[in-house]
Design a protein that fits this description.
6-stranded mixed sheet, alpha+beta, single chain, 28% strand, globular, 373 residues
Protein backbone atom coordinates (compact mmCIF):
# COMPACT_ATOMS: atom_id res chain seq x y z
CA UNK A 1 0.00 0.00 0.00
CA UNK A 2 1.57 3.37 -1.04
CA UNK A 3 1.41 6.48 1.16
CA UNK A 4 -1.32 8.15 -0.88
CA UNK A 5 -3.60 5.13 -0.53
CA UNK A 6 -2.86 4.84 3.19
CA UNK A 7 -3.72 8.52 3.68
CA UNK A 8 -7.04 8.05 1.90
CA UNK A 9 -7.97 5.13 4.13
CA UNK A 10 -7.13 7.04 7.28
CA UNK A 11 -9.27 9.98 6.22
CA UNK A 12 -12.21 7.70 5.50
CA UNK A 13 -11.70 5.89 8.80
CA UNK A 14 -11.65 9.13 10.78
CA UNK A 15 -14.78 10.40 9.00
CA UNK A 16 -16.58 7.13 9.61
CA UNK A 17 -15.75 7.42 13.30
CA UNK A 18 -17.12 10.93 13.64
CA UNK A 19 -20.37 10.23 11.77
CA UNK A 20 -21.85 7.69 14.24
CA UNK A 21 -20.95 10.01 17.11
CA UNK A 22 -22.91 12.89 15.54
CA UNK A 23 -25.83 10.58 14.81
CA UNK A 24 -25.92 9.34 18.41
CA UNK A 25 -26.01 12.92 19.66
CA UNK A 26 -28.96 13.71 17.43
CA UNK A 27 -30.78 10.60 18.57
CA UNK A 28 -30.15 11.57 22.20
CA UNK A 29 -31.49 15.08 21.66
CA UNK A 30 -34.57 13.79 19.86
CA UNK A 31 -35.23 11.25 22.63
CA UNK A 32 -34.81 13.92 25.29
CA UNK A 33 -37.20 16.24 23.44
CA UNK A 34 -39.77 13.49 23.06
CA UNK A 35 -39.41 12.69 26.77
CA UNK A 36 -39.97 16.31 27.74
CA UNK A 37 -43.06 16.48 25.54
CA UNK A 38 -44.46 13.28 27.06
CA UNK A 39 -43.84 14.51 30.60
CA UNK A 40 -45.49 17.84 29.74
CA UNK A 41 -48.54 16.11 28.26
CA UNK A 42 -48.85 13.73 31.21
CA UNK A 43 -48.37 16.19 34.07
CA UNK A 44 -48.85 19.77 32.91
CA UNK A 45 -51.76 19.74 30.45
CA UNK A 46 -54.90 20.46 32.48
CA UNK A 47 -58.03 18.49 31.66
CA UNK A 48 -61.57 19.86 32.21
CA UNK A 49 -62.03 17.77 35.36
CA UNK A 50 -61.47 17.95 39.10
CA UNK A 51 -60.16 14.97 41.08
CA UNK A 52 -61.66 14.66 44.57
CA UNK A 53 -59.88 12.63 47.24
CA UNK A 54 -59.52 12.38 51.04
CA UNK A 55 -58.08 15.54 52.57
CA UNK A 56 -57.20 16.17 56.20
CA UNK A 57 -58.70 16.01 59.67
CA UNK A 58 -57.40 19.04 61.57
CA UNK A 59 -57.71 20.03 65.20
CA UNK A 60 -59.82 23.17 65.49
CA UNK A 61 -58.66 24.50 68.86
CA UNK A 62 -55.55 26.27 67.43
CA UNK A 63 -57.82 28.01 64.89
CA UNK A 64 -60.21 29.49 67.47
CA UNK A 65 -59.28 32.03 70.11
CA UNK A 66 -61.39 33.67 72.84
CA UNK A 67 -59.93 35.96 75.51
CA UNK A 68 -62.07 34.40 78.23
CA UNK A 69 -61.59 30.81 77.03
CA UNK A 70 -61.91 28.05 79.61
CA UNK A 71 -59.09 26.21 77.82
CA UNK A 72 -60.29 22.80 78.97
CA UNK A 73 -60.06 20.20 76.22
CA UNK A 74 -58.72 16.74 77.00
CA UNK A 75 -59.90 15.35 73.67
CA UNK A 76 -59.92 16.89 70.20
CA UNK A 77 -62.55 18.42 67.95
CA UNK A 78 -61.53 18.10 64.29
CA UNK A 79 -62.85 19.50 61.05
CA UNK A 80 -62.44 17.37 57.93
CA UNK A 81 -61.59 18.38 54.38
CA UNK A 82 -61.68 17.07 50.83
CA UNK A 83 -58.64 17.55 48.63
CA UNK A 84 -59.48 18.88 45.15
CA UNK A 85 -56.89 18.70 42.37
CA UNK A 86 -56.91 19.87 38.78
CA UNK A 87 -56.87 16.78 36.59
CA UNK A 88 -53.90 15.97 34.40
CA UNK A 89 -53.56 12.79 32.37
CA UNK A 90 -51.81 10.89 35.17
CA UNK A 91 -54.11 11.68 38.09
CA UNK A 92 -57.15 11.38 35.81
CA UNK A 93 -56.18 7.80 34.95
CA UNK A 94 -55.41 7.04 38.59
CA UNK A 95 -58.76 8.50 39.62
CA UNK A 96 -60.58 6.20 37.19
CA UNK A 97 -59.34 3.09 38.98
CA UNK A 98 -58.73 4.31 42.55
CA UNK A 99 -61.55 3.12 44.85
CA UNK A 100 -61.46 6.24 47.04
CA UNK A 101 -61.08 8.98 44.45
CA UNK A 102 -63.71 10.46 42.15
CA UNK A 103 -63.63 12.58 39.00
CA UNK A 104 -66.14 15.31 38.22
CA UNK A 105 -66.33 17.62 35.19
CA UNK A 106 -65.46 21.19 36.11
CA UNK A 107 -68.68 22.43 34.52
CA UNK A 108 -70.62 20.36 37.06
CA UNK A 109 -68.80 22.07 39.94
CA UNK A 110 -68.55 25.66 38.70
CA UNK A 111 -71.61 27.87 38.40
CA UNK A 112 -72.60 29.11 34.97
CA UNK A 113 -70.09 31.70 33.78
CA UNK A 114 -67.94 31.24 36.88
CA UNK A 115 -64.14 31.10 36.56
CA UNK A 116 -61.95 28.95 38.78
CA UNK A 117 -60.72 32.09 40.55
CA UNK A 118 -64.31 33.10 41.22
CA UNK A 119 -65.06 29.57 42.46
CA UNK A 120 -62.15 29.83 44.92
CA UNK A 121 -63.39 33.22 46.08
CA UNK A 122 -66.89 31.82 46.55
CA UNK A 123 -65.47 29.03 48.71
CA UNK A 124 -63.62 31.59 50.82
CA UNK A 125 -66.76 33.68 51.20
CA UNK A 126 -68.98 30.76 52.25
CA UNK A 127 -66.31 29.76 54.78
CA UNK A 128 -66.50 33.25 56.29
CA UNK A 129 -70.31 33.20 56.39
CA UNK A 130 -70.19 29.69 57.86
CA UNK A 131 -67.89 30.92 60.62
CA UNK A 132 -70.27 33.78 61.38
CA UNK A 133 -73.18 31.32 61.63
CA UNK A 134 -71.09 29.01 63.83
CA UNK A 135 -70.32 31.86 66.22
CA UNK A 136 -74.00 32.84 66.40
CA UNK A 137 -75.07 29.23 67.06
CA UNK A 138 -72.43 28.79 69.78
CA UNK A 139 -73.24 32.13 71.42
CA UNK A 140 -76.93 31.20 71.46
CA UNK A 141 -76.28 27.78 73.07
CA UNK A 142 -73.87 29.29 75.61
CA UNK A 143 -76.26 32.21 76.28
CA UNK A 144 -73.67 34.84 75.34
CA UNK A 145 -75.20 38.23 74.32
CA UNK A 146 -74.08 39.41 70.86
CA UNK A 147 -74.91 41.71 67.95
CA UNK A 148 -74.27 41.78 64.18
CA UNK A 149 -72.10 44.36 62.41
CA UNK A 150 -72.42 44.77 58.63
CA UNK A 151 -69.02 45.43 57.03
CA UNK A 152 -69.54 46.02 53.32
CA UNK A 153 -70.24 43.93 50.25
CA UNK A 154 -67.79 41.47 48.70
CA UNK A 155 -67.46 40.99 44.95
CA UNK A 156 -67.99 37.29 44.25
CA UNK A 157 -68.12 37.46 40.46
CA UNK A 158 -67.96 40.01 37.65
CA UNK A 159 -70.17 40.17 34.56
CA UNK A 160 -68.23 39.95 31.26
CA UNK A 161 -68.35 43.07 29.14
CA UNK A 162 -69.29 45.53 31.88
CA UNK A 163 -67.04 48.11 33.51
CA UNK A 164 -66.77 46.26 36.82
CA UNK A 165 -64.95 43.41 35.11
CA UNK A 166 -62.12 45.72 34.01
CA UNK A 167 -61.41 47.15 37.46
CA UNK A 168 -62.82 44.99 40.24
CA UNK A 169 -61.70 41.48 41.22
CA UNK A 170 -63.37 38.69 43.16
CA UNK A 171 -62.63 39.35 46.83
CA UNK A 172 -62.78 43.15 46.61
CA UNK A 173 -65.05 44.69 49.25
CA UNK A 174 -67.27 47.59 48.15
CA UNK A 175 -67.39 50.36 50.76
CA UNK A 176 -69.12 53.30 49.03
CA UNK A 177 -71.13 53.85 45.84
CA UNK A 178 -71.26 57.55 45.03
CA UNK A 179 -71.82 59.30 48.35
CA UNK A 180 -73.69 56.35 49.85
CA UNK A 181 -71.95 54.02 52.28
CA UNK A 182 -72.36 50.36 51.28
CA UNK A 183 -73.08 48.12 54.26
CA UNK A 184 -75.41 45.59 52.63
CA UNK A 185 -76.15 44.61 49.03
CA UNK A 186 -79.35 46.68 49.04
CA UNK A 187 -77.26 49.82 49.62
CA UNK A 188 -75.52 49.24 46.28
CA UNK A 189 -78.85 48.73 44.52
CA UNK A 190 -80.27 51.87 46.10
CA UNK A 191 -77.32 53.95 44.91
CA UNK A 192 -77.94 52.79 41.32
CA UNK A 193 -81.71 53.33 41.39
CA UNK A 194 -82.84 55.72 38.66
CA UNK A 195 -79.58 55.58 36.77
CA UNK A 196 -79.28 54.35 33.18
CA UNK A 197 -76.61 52.79 30.97
CA UNK A 198 -73.92 55.33 30.18
CA UNK A 199 -74.11 57.13 33.53
CA UNK A 200 -71.07 57.01 35.80
CA UNK A 201 -70.63 56.36 39.52
CA UNK A 202 -67.64 56.53 41.85
CA UNK A 203 -66.87 53.33 43.75
CA UNK A 204 -64.73 53.09 46.88
CA UNK A 205 -63.51 49.58 47.59
CA UNK A 206 -60.92 47.66 49.59
CA UNK A 207 -58.50 45.15 48.10
CA UNK A 208 -56.50 43.20 50.66
CA UNK A 209 -57.29 45.93 53.23
CA UNK A 210 -56.01 48.72 50.95
CA UNK A 211 -58.70 51.31 50.20
CA UNK A 212 -59.01 52.35 46.54
CA UNK A 213 -61.36 54.46 44.42
CA UNK A 214 -62.49 54.31 40.78
CA UNK A 215 -65.19 55.71 38.52
CA UNK A 216 -67.24 53.16 36.57
CA UNK A 217 -69.59 53.59 33.63
CA UNK A 218 -72.86 51.77 34.07
CA UNK A 219 -73.93 49.21 31.49
CA UNK A 220 -77.08 47.23 30.75
CA UNK A 221 -77.29 44.12 32.94
CA UNK A 222 -78.52 40.80 31.50
CA UNK A 223 -82.29 40.47 31.77
CA UNK A 224 -83.51 38.51 34.77
CA UNK A 225 -86.64 36.36 34.81
CA UNK A 226 -89.70 38.61 34.61
CA UNK A 227 -87.78 41.69 33.44
CA UNK A 228 -88.54 43.42 30.14
CA UNK A 229 -86.24 46.42 30.52
CA UNK A 230 -82.59 45.86 31.48
CA UNK A 231 -81.36 47.49 34.66
CA UNK A 232 -78.16 49.58 34.74
CA UNK A 233 -75.29 48.30 36.85
CA UNK A 234 -71.54 47.99 37.25
CA UNK A 235 -71.58 44.25 36.60
CA UNK A 236 -70.77 42.49 39.88
CA UNK A 237 -72.34 39.67 41.88
CA UNK A 238 -72.37 41.10 45.44
CA UNK A 239 -72.44 39.30 48.77
CA UNK A 240 -72.89 40.97 52.15
CA UNK A 241 -70.08 40.82 54.72
CA UNK A 242 -70.96 40.69 58.40
CA UNK A 243 -69.25 39.99 61.70
CA UNK A 244 -70.68 38.66 64.94
CA UNK A 245 -69.67 40.72 67.97
CA UNK A 246 -70.02 39.63 71.58
CA UNK A 247 -71.41 42.35 73.82
CA UNK A 248 -68.55 41.63 76.24
CA UNK A 249 -65.13 42.01 74.60
CA UNK A 250 -63.50 39.13 76.50
CA UNK A 251 -66.01 36.72 74.92
CA UNK A 252 -65.23 37.78 71.35
CA UNK A 253 -64.39 34.87 69.04
CA UNK A 254 -61.61 35.05 66.45
CA UNK A 255 -61.16 32.31 63.83
CA UNK A 256 -58.11 31.79 61.62
CA UNK A 257 -58.64 28.76 59.38
CA UNK A 258 -55.84 29.37 56.89
CA UNK A 259 -56.63 28.37 53.32
CA UNK A 260 -59.52 26.04 54.20
CA UNK A 261 -62.61 27.00 52.19
CA UNK A 262 -66.25 26.01 51.96
CA UNK A 263 -69.09 25.92 54.51
CA UNK A 264 -68.85 22.34 55.75
CA UNK A 265 -66.79 23.01 58.90
CA UNK A 266 -69.60 25.07 60.43
CA UNK A 267 -70.83 22.45 62.89
CA UNK A 268 -67.38 21.62 64.20
CA UNK A 269 -66.47 25.29 64.60
CA UNK A 270 -69.64 25.85 66.63
CA UNK A 271 -68.79 22.93 68.94
CA UNK A 272 -65.24 24.18 69.49
CA UNK A 273 -66.43 27.73 70.21
CA UNK A 274 -69.05 26.43 72.64
CA UNK A 275 -66.42 24.28 74.36
CA UNK A 276 -64.23 27.33 74.96
CA UNK A 277 -67.15 29.36 76.35
CA UNK A 278 -68.47 26.87 78.92
CA UNK A 279 -66.70 25.53 82.02
CA UNK A 280 -67.10 21.82 81.22
CA UNK A 281 -65.11 19.94 78.56
CA UNK A 282 -67.61 18.50 76.07
CA UNK A 283 -64.92 16.28 74.45
CA UNK A 284 -64.42 14.21 77.64
CA UNK A 285 -61.11 12.97 76.21
CA UNK A 286 -62.48 11.66 72.88
CA UNK A 287 -61.14 12.38 69.40
CA UNK A 288 -64.20 13.78 67.62
CA UNK A 289 -64.37 14.62 63.92
CA UNK A 290 -67.30 15.64 61.79
CA UNK A 291 -68.78 17.80 59.08
CA UNK A 292 -71.91 19.76 58.25
CA UNK A 293 -72.99 23.30 57.51
CA UNK A 294 -74.50 25.29 60.35
CA UNK A 295 -77.26 27.88 60.42
CA UNK A 296 -77.43 30.63 63.01
CA UNK A 297 -80.23 28.71 64.76
CA UNK A 298 -78.06 25.58 65.03
CA UNK A 299 -79.58 23.61 62.16
CA UNK A 300 -77.02 21.30 60.50
CA UNK A 301 -77.12 21.00 56.72
CA UNK A 302 -75.73 18.50 54.20
CA UNK A 303 -72.35 18.74 52.50
CA UNK A 304 -70.46 17.08 49.65
CA UNK A 305 -67.64 14.57 49.73
CA UNK A 306 -68.44 12.97 53.08
CA UNK A 307 -67.02 9.64 51.89
CA UNK A 308 -63.59 11.28 51.57
CA UNK A 309 -63.89 12.93 54.98
CA UNK A 310 -64.54 9.58 56.64
CA UNK A 311 -61.15 8.37 55.41
CA UNK A 312 -59.44 11.58 56.54
CA UNK A 313 -60.96 11.25 60.02
CA UNK A 314 -60.02 7.57 60.30
CA UNK A 315 -56.40 8.37 59.39
CA UNK A 316 -56.29 10.76 62.37
CA UNK A 317 -57.71 8.07 64.66
CA UNK A 318 -61.04 9.79 65.29
CA UNK A 319 -63.33 7.79 67.56
CA UNK A 320 -66.56 9.65 66.75
CA UNK A 321 -67.73 11.22 63.50
CA UNK A 322 -70.73 13.56 63.30
CA UNK A 323 -72.55 13.24 59.96
CA UNK A 324 -75.52 15.34 58.79
CA UNK A 325 -78.77 13.40 58.73
CA UNK A 326 -80.23 12.11 55.48
CA UNK A 327 -82.47 14.68 53.80
CA UNK A 328 -85.17 14.64 51.11
CA UNK A 329 -86.08 17.98 49.56
CA UNK A 330 -89.53 19.01 48.30
CA UNK A 331 -88.51 18.31 44.70
CA UNK A 332 -87.60 14.72 45.64
CA UNK A 333 -83.83 15.25 45.67
CA UNK A 334 -82.13 13.09 48.29
CA UNK A 335 -78.84 13.81 50.03
CA UNK A 336 -77.85 10.87 52.17
CA UNK A 337 -74.78 12.09 54.07
CA UNK A 338 -75.27 9.72 56.99
CA UNK A 339 -75.87 6.65 54.81
CA UNK A 340 -72.87 7.48 52.61
CA UNK A 341 -70.71 7.93 55.71
CA UNK A 342 -71.77 4.58 57.15
CA UNK A 343 -71.15 2.86 53.81
CA UNK A 344 -67.61 4.20 53.51
CA UNK A 345 -66.88 3.45 57.17
CA UNK A 346 -67.79 -0.20 56.54
CA UNK A 347 -65.66 -0.30 53.39
CA UNK A 348 -62.53 0.83 55.23
CA UNK A 349 -63.41 -1.26 58.33
CA UNK A 350 -63.01 1.64 60.74
CA UNK A 351 -63.95 1.39 64.41
CA UNK A 352 -65.06 5.02 64.34
CA UNK A 353 -68.65 5.58 65.51
CA UNK A 354 -70.79 7.40 62.90
CA UNK A 355 -73.42 9.61 64.57
CA UNK A 356 -76.34 11.11 62.62
CA UNK A 357 -77.31 14.62 63.71
CA UNK A 358 -79.66 17.35 62.52
CA UNK A 359 -78.80 20.18 64.89
CA UNK A 360 -75.96 21.40 67.07
CA UNK A 361 -78.11 20.48 70.05
CA UNK A 362 -78.18 16.85 68.84
CA UNK A 363 -74.37 16.77 68.91
CA UNK A 364 -74.23 18.33 72.38
CA UNK A 365 -76.77 15.85 73.77
CA UNK A 366 -74.78 12.93 72.34
CA UNK A 367 -71.56 14.22 73.91
CA UNK A 368 -73.27 14.91 77.23
CA UNK A 369 -74.36 11.24 77.43
CA UNK A 370 -70.83 9.92 76.86
CA UNK A 371 -68.90 8.58 79.86
CA UNK A 372 -65.58 10.41 80.42
CA UNK A 373 -62.52 8.50 79.21
Amino acid sequence: MDKEEESTIRTWSNDSYRYPRSSATRRYLVSALVGIIIVYLLFFVRLPFFVFMPGTAEEIKPMVSISKSTGLEKGKLMLTTVRVADANVVNYLVGLVHPYEEIQPKKAVLKQGESEQEYSQRQEYVMLTSQASAIQAAYTEAKVPFHIDHEGVMVLQTVPGLSGEKVLKPGDVLLKAGDKEVKVAQDLLDSLAGKKAGDTISITYARKKTEMQTTLTLGALPLQEGETVPRAGIGVVPAGMQSVKADLEDQQVSIKAGDIGGPSAGLMFSLEIFNQLVPEDITKGYRIAGTGTIEADGTVGPIGGIQHKIIAADREKAEIFFAPKNMTYKDGTKIENYSDAVKRAKQIKTKMKIVEIGTMEDALKYLAALPPK
